[in-house]
């Protein structure tokens, strides 16, 4: 027998348990992609019914099927263009009326639909009762009770979808709702025109096109115009006429009437299907009682501060341990390869380029796993919605959204975070403009890799005041992020703020399975990047710092010097005498000076020297320039490159005291330059890993924008600071 | 309908019924999508620490709105 497949979509509101049902239906057989044309995640998975392979597609969570948001567009296009064999409408049965609003819109399209009455456990707990058989009868859609988090009813709902798909065999039977005496005659007329002109023919019912015209749906109106300009003229004229009439007589609009009648239709069903408890109605729910404390005027912010602090300390305290393991493992790998291979370019490429580069990125994987585990837990409990609710007033001033707080904190709002999970966390923002502004400014925060730079400079120029410097840096980063967000929101990301209208879902216990799947998805996404783009960037940076090699005669003077010292040392050793410390030092100095000369001679070094004329107004010498160039790849590189450039050999980022000493003695590097450098490092281009993460979330255009804009801004600010503090000094 | 006020002016824990929604376009759509339509019964159950946004309880669920959005919603007391 030939292998059969069929596609089934999962549609539903946000917070209705759709993803939980998806996970429980498909288990680990799922993969994540992107919907065509939008940056919304598309999740697909497989399930089986008998011999048939069922492709399950998780549609984005939406409340409606208009074309306002990317999620709605993606969901609608899937239904219309991919024509799934059946759709499972996942309903939070505890808020059946509102959840049916989306289901009814899918019924109006005519897609074979089954209803999953999810969260039936909560319905029963609330003392409510739902007559499932009656719901099936009234809607004409098979309804099945489910509790997705326990996997209850999953087989039944899939079977129901399968049976309905077989029975309908691709035919769509659209639901016709009456829209009242004003709109029904217009819709009849429109249906006729649409049919005659063949607008979206064979894809959607003609009446549906009419409804979308009345709802002023820009994408359907555009398609109407493409199909037949004359018909489009007629349809638009009809819409305008009835809109004017409604404005005059009832002071309302067609889309408001449509919503009223749709809800009226739904209320007609739920009145018969849902029975509310008689006495229990006034009982304050547990969730509302929790909110009285958790969103209380004074207690709320205090608890929120604690939650953020805990999230943060837990991630970095727990994450540090496996992070060291991974780093040690890569260090070991590097050493092993180094010992196994002969000295040469290939060894340097593999050890210093590939292993060190990818190792640096992989070191963050444990951190990202823990971070996302905790973040999704916080999100699934419903607390993130409360944070957004409490903080929205503050963030709105800067054109952001209450939910922006999480990406900021994760990126290093409390010094020591990481912008990569921060940027990835912006996915929780459902408002596109606010998301973009958050994503572009979150990398200003003091991430863990920038901290050593600030500490080293503080130790060199503000000894004894390291804590003050760090606090000032963290605070400046927040100020910079918020002000730049405001600037962006009034220029390149201009526009009305997205409506805040947002559900506060009841507090729920997250499921371990859901958390693990989510965590794994994000971490895998990150690791894949490390293996591809990051590897390429690491090799590129390595090449820039290695080539061209020192000319032989120049290298020879250093090796001769080193050889001479080595001969002396060997000589002394052979005689069984103590080797004086000066000789050891002389050897190390010779090697370090060779590294410095090699670095200066490389492409990166030459660029650094060439850029001195541009960077001298900010007080940066060529050594600082190279270090900053390295920082484009990863901020961890700044301190170690600066060490090499100052002939200190290998510098440990955690213990940069020799470098601090060196800098404070350097005549060409002043306190003013240190201040300017601090500002520059706060502001300039995010590291390459962050850039890649940004491109994934918002496209390469914005990732490159952030690279150039941030660096430009950093330069201007650094010059101002350097010049101003020199004048004041 | 002399008792009509905008939702911003409503007291916490007052039972209200929606008279009309003045919002158009995307905001109007989003408000209606959530079931805020004339005749719906709502209660303001809380305000954020800075008095904005507000939390609204409908019969089956809770949602939040900014004050500037609540301005478009006209309500009357439903006792």
State which percent range the strand residues of chain A make up: 5-15%
Structural class of chain B: alpha+beta
In CATH, the homologous superfamily of chain B goes by the name Ferrous iron transport protein A (FeoA)
The greatest interface here is: A-B, 43 and 35 residues
Number of helix segments of chain A? 32
Description:
The complex is a heterodimer of chains A (729) and B (79). Chain A has 729 residues and is of the alpha/beta class. Among the domains of chain A are: 164 residues, Rossmann fold (3-Layer(aba) Sandwich); 103 residues, Orthogonal Bundle (Helix Hairpins); 216 residues, no CATH class. Helix content of chain A is 66%, strand content 7%. Chain A is built from 32 helices and ten strands. In chain A, strands 2-3-4-1-5-6-8 form a seven-stranded mixed β-sheet, with helices on both faces. In chain A, α5 packs antiparallel against α11 and α20 packs antiparallel against α30. The longest helix of chain A has 42 residues. Chain B has 79 residues and is of the alpha+beta class. Chain B has a single domain, classed as Ferrous iron transport protein A (FeoA) (SH3 type barrels, Roll), CATH 2.30.30. A six-stranded antiparallel β-sheet of chain B has the order 1-6-2-3-4-5. In chain B, a hairpin with a 6-residue loop joins β3 and β4. The radius of gyration of chain B is 11 Å and the shape is globular. At the A-B interface, α3, α11, α12, α16 and β10 of A face α1 and β5 of B.
Task: Summarize it.
The complex is a heterodimer of chains A (729) and B (79). With 729 residues, chain A is an alpha/beta fold.
